[in-house]
């Protein structure tokens, strides 16, 4: 039975904690803030409730496996999952609109042909078929297998080439593989259809002008496995995971920032919280006591001993190997500005859950509007909550005035697309990248993208960055030091973060030679 210290209480960290506790280890989670969930949080006011992080779940099988492996109650008994259908409605700047069904090739083909003209559906589904090749080539190394420090060079070499089978077209001479934007232009041949693909990539924090064509795999994943809504909002998933951890005996210490991972002789010895060593239970959000004993060591000393340390977040605190490394410089990521709207009037019955508005004045910054039909998010049926969000660089919404002006433009864009939200606004809350950084500690409020294969362009496609988007490994060079969450392998997004927890738990339980579940 090992003593495990987990730094941070995001989804990836809690996924690792639950699995490790079930394996018989003593697990204590140190969280700098007063609550769990990392970037998966909620804002509540006047009976309205909003997700302030991701609003949808992809690849729910990751969490189904987690709940099966860690307790008697499966995921669907802990939260209610609803598959979106239609998956999304796109409204283009020329007034054209199309709703894409969930998981139906024939339905998607027909919808695109009807909205964008004959042949549009076939070009889109052909692209999805090529993206499936990427999924099959990268699913194991980039999602299901752990990454160790010793295995990092081999993975980089193996994924240096983009597996996307871009068709060769006469007259195209490039010294590198196409970017996602270039592949979209080459293969989809309709600016509206191209923007469907590039907007999806943007929602994951990617710039289509720099991401490899293989980023089309994200469209394949959403089409094949669906987009899912968690009843009550994504925060309900964090609540269920926290509850599962406490059921398994994981101890949470809220308001305890770890400032150093203590090492000796190339191995971890423990963690040093900023407030010093204090035993006993911490009171969790909601008043529940998360544990009744010190799970690491009750003896007074200047650090708390641990046999292994699992780090969530972008940086390893202290002086351990990799500490202070700014992974945000190497990992593709964008921030997000979010506008929370409390609306008077009932939600129209035919309202899509997710609408993407393609703006003529900002073609690389599409607007996503989420309007769940969920009584838990509104005070009564005479009101509605809506979330507007756009991915951007942190400096694009720096300062309250700039953020307010952008929020006005986003609401106007939604109204121009026929959503009629502006006249119904009771109040709004504008959340900037700086707000996210202050709340969660994410540098510049950045949201990391999933790991992808292939070289990346930079400077709008004028140069090549060969490092790609491989994340820091799950096990570090320092013995007993591990990394989870969106800033570690296999990258950002709720599903990938949850998978990182499974990979780290497997490495700790089975050893560094473990290569993942078959």
Q: How is this structure best summarized?
A:
The protein is α+β, with helices and mostly antiparallel strands and 518 residues long. The chain is built from 13 helices and 23 strands. 30% of the residues lie in helices and 21% in strands.
Topology:
Blueprint: E1 3-7, H1 11-22, E2 26-31, E3 42-45, E4 48-51, E5 57-58, H2 61-70, H3 75-78, E6 81-83, E7 88-91, E8 97-100, H4 105-116, H5 120-144, H6 152-158, H7 180-188, H8 191-203, H9 217-225, E9 227-230, H10 235-247, E10 251-254, E11 258-264, E12 267-273, E13 304-305, E14 308-311, E15 333-344, E16 354-357, E17 367-370, E18 383-392, H11 400-416, E19 425-431, H12 433-440, E20 447-448, E21 456-458, E22 463-465, E23 481-483, H13 494-510
Parallel strand pairs: 1-2, 1-14, 2-10, 7-16, 14-23
Antiparallel strand pairs: 3-4, 5-9, 6-9, 7-8, 11-12, 12-13, 15-18, 15-19, 15-20, 16-17, 17-18, 21-22
List keywords for this structure.
518 residues; alpha+beta; 8-stranded mixed β-sheet; 5-stranded parallel β-sheet; 13 helices; globular
Would you write up a description of this structure?
This protein is of the alpha+beta class and 518 residues long. It has 13 helices and 23 strands. Strands 7, 8, 15, 16, 17, 18, 19 and 20 form an eight-stranded mixed beta sheet that branches. A five-stranded parallel beta sheet has the order 10-2-1-14-23, with helices on one face. Strand 1, helix 1 and strand 2 form a beta-alpha-beta unit. About 3% of the residues have low confidence.
């Amino acid at each position: 039975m090992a003593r495990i210290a987990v730094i941070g209480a995001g989804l990836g960290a809690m996924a690792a904690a639950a699995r490790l506790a079930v394996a018989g280890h003593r697990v204590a989670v140190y969280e700098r803030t007063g609550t769990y969930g990392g970037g998966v949080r909620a804002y509540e006011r006047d009976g309205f409730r909003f997700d302030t992080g991701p609003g949808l779940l992809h690849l729910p099988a990751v969490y189904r496996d987690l709940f099966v492996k860690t307790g008697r109650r499966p995921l669907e008994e802990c939260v209610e999952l609803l598959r979106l259908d239609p998956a999304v409605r796109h409204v283009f700047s020329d007034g054209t609109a199309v709703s894409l069904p969930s998981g139906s090739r024939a339905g998607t083909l027909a919808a695109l042909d009807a909205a964008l003209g004959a042949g549009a559906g076939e070009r889109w589904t052909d692209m999805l078929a090529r993206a499936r090749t990427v999924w099959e080539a990268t699913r194991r190394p980039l999602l299901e297998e752990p990454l160790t420090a010793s295995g990092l060079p081999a993975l980089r070499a193996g994924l240096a080439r983009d597996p996307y089978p871009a068709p060769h077209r006469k007259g195209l001479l490039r010294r590198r593989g196409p970017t996602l934007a270039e592949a979209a232009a080459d293969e989809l041949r309709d600016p509206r259809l191209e923007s469907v693909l590039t907007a999806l990539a943007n929602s994951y924090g990617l710039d289509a002008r720099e991401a490899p064509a293989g980023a089309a795999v994200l469209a394949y994943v959403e089409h094949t496995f669906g987009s899912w809504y968690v009843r009550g909002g994504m925060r309900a998933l964090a609540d269920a995971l926290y509850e599962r951890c406490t059921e398994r005996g994981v101890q949470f210490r809220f308001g305890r920032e770890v400032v150093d991972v203590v090492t000796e002789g190339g191995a971890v010895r423990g963690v040093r919280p900023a407030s010093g060593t204090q035993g006993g239970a911490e009171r969790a959000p909601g008043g529940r006591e998360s544990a009744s004993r010190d799970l690491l060591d009750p003896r007074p000393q200047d650090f708390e001993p641990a046999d292994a340390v699992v780090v969530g977040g972008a940086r390893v605190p202290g002086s351990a190997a990799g500490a202070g490394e700014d992974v945000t410089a190497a990992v593709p990521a964008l921030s997000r500005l979010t506008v929370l709207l409390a609306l008077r009037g009932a939600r129209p019955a035919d309202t899509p859950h997710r609408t993407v508005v393609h703006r003529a004045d900002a073609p690389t910054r599409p607007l996503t509007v989420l309007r769940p039909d969920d009584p838990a998010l509104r005070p009564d049926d005479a009101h509605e909550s809506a979330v507007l969000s756009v991915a951007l660089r942190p400096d694009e919404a720096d300062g309250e005035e700039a953020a307010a002006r952008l929020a006005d433009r986003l609401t106007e864009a939604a109204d121009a697309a026929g959503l009629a939200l502006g006249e119904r606004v009771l109040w709004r809350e504008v959340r900037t990248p700086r707000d996210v950084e202050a709340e969660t500690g994410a540098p510049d409020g950045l949201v990391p993208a999933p790991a992808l294969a292939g070289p990346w362009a930079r400077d709008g496609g004028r140069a090549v960055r060969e490092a790609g988007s491989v994340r820091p490994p799950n096990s570090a060079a320092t013995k007993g030091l591990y990394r989870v969450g969106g800033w570690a392998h296999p990258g950002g997004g709720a599903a990938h973060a949850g998978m990182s927890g499974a990979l780290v738990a497997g490495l700790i339980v089975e050893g560094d030679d473990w290569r993942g579940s078959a």
